[in-house]
Amino acid sequence: MARIAKGDDEAFRLLIERHKLAVFGTAFKMLQDRFLAEEITQKVFLRVYWAAKRYRPTAKFRTWLFTILRRLVLNEFRRRPSAEVLILTGDDPGAGSSQTTARSPAEMLLDKERIDLVERAIASLPPKQRLAVLLKGYEDLSYEEIGRVLGLSLSATRALLFRARESLRKSLPFLLGER
């Protein structure tokens, strides 16, 4: 950020390359609109660029970055309150797995259906709970970092994630083997 504040465009390019997938992925999971997520991602990095001279590293950079993202996404929800939000990550359940066993088409279809159910359950959460779950589950932020992003105390963040997990547990009993 110090280099960007001095006008180093290469430093800004590197910063974007390092963080754009996480910002875009989170925006897309929240908004379920590729073009809107791209627009929000661009706005995030424009705000980073404009704030470079004022930036003070009082917290982790990613925390500050996701705080900017949170504000822009919540502004979009306020602007379009009737927008239905679904999460579609396109994750392949077998990708990155160290297992080399072949899976049948039926198993792959069942995995996809389970992923779709989980994504819909997450999408049904209120925006703050949804963002907290995404930041914890996909971005692996700590409770403290999530609290800073959402503007909540540590205990409020823990409570928010607890309520989100309870809602998910009730809507996804198959994850726990319940019926």
From TrEMBL:
It comes from the Bacteria. Residues 117-168 form the RNA polymerase sigma factor 70 region 4 type domain. It comes from Methylacidimicrobium cyclopophantes. Pfam families: Sigma70_r2, Sigma70_r4_2. One of its GO terms (biological process) is DNA-templated transcription initiation. This is RNA polymerase sigma factor. Residues 15-80 form the RNA polymerase sigma-70 region domain. CDD domains: Sigma70_r4. Belongs to the sigma-70 factor family. ECF subfamily. InterPro entries: RNA_pol_sigma-70-like, RNA_pol_sigma-70_dom, RNA_pol_sigma70_ECF_CS, RNA_pol_sigma70_r2, RNA_pol_sigma70_r4_t2, RNA_pol_sigma_r2, RNA_pol_sigma_r3/r4-like, WH-like_DNA-bd_sf. The keyword DNA-binding applies. GO terms for molecular function: DNA binding; sigma factor activity. Keywords: DNA-binding, Sigma factor, Transcription, Transcription regulation.
